[in-house]
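Subject — a protein and its fold
Fields — amino acid sequence, structure tokens
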Amino acid sequence: MEDINLHYRFLNWRRRIREIREARPVRYRERLKRMLRDGDILRYHGNSDEVGCFVAARPLTRRNRYYEVKITDTGVRGMIAVGLVPQFYKLDHQPGWLPHSVAFHADDGKLYNGNTVGQQFGPKCCIGDRIGCGICPDSDDGQLTVFFTKNGKEVGSVEIPAFPDGLYPAVGMHSLGEEVLLDLNAEWTMEEDEGQMIVDSHEEDWGRLHDVKVTGTLLKYTGRGKSIMDVGLAQARRPLNTRFHYFELEITDAGEKCYIALGLARRDYPKNRHPGWSRGSIAYHADDGKLFKGSGVGDPFGPRCFEGDIMGCGIMFPRDYSLDGEDDVDDWDLEMFSKPVEVQNELYAGNEDGEEEEEGEDVEGRKVMVFFTRNGKVVGRREVVVPEGGLYPTIGMMSIGEKVRVDLHPLSG
């Protein structure tokens, strides 16, 4: 009899506990997969074939409407995403890929809004950059305005349908070594002085980085280095102009094969093409000493370059040349260099790499003289047409271990 009474008392106790739990407000825990959290640090913990994702425990609200992450390591590919997702979002997908989610991706600067195809949105982000995501308090009941920031400056915003249960801060990663510092309690207010000048860090000097990691002035190749498509590309944010018309790199590590190229390219140059291979570009290649100008076939040009060598590239602008409204300056003074060596052959005028080129690209447009140096001595020069928008300092790398130290303004004092 006593056993029966104990049994019923136990059942009543379990029922009472269940009633108490159901009466409490639900408290959810953060969710993460293929990621590790150590305090405010989030690290990728996968094998780079699968996505890692973190979802915070609480959604953004009108009171807590903003959060930030600081990129402390871009890892191999820098595929870090910051955005908002539903509470039970599938953790093997990057934020922004699935419906009712939106995210800004650091590796390509694109916005992904419920789709695996992104739209061009803002600049790429590198080590040291802070990416923020928030919701506007004046959003309509049926629509939610989500905005993104980079280093405290608004990048842009997008309107999405409001989700009944709210949207949660989410961070996605997809390659080894990626790491961010998470601040779920960050605050952000729009700065009124939009005209304030901001001094760029070394990372900010680069407008495009693909399979290249920047640490100060050091560029390191982070690609696979297995085929001609595995190009690591770094392109400066600003083109050469009459004030800053020359730049240099020092080969600090030749890597496996020293597939390092230095030159100039149009702003929309393909990210998986070595400088010089496609139209609107010209480059001096270290491994064979050849010059490539809009063609996959190079011509003998100068000596090969090795670890410790300094390669340079510049433009001799005509005295009456004006670019982006800047004041004209004198031509580049080549007297400081030794007499250029003879260039053995003219470059191929056509493109022989199979890519369709615009007819007359080497005829129409204003021409300038591009020159290359090695260890302070001019190797040679070529006349090229300046594409719309100018010619941007561009560096290519393509084999494991390659590192170069870059000075974009070696003569600016």
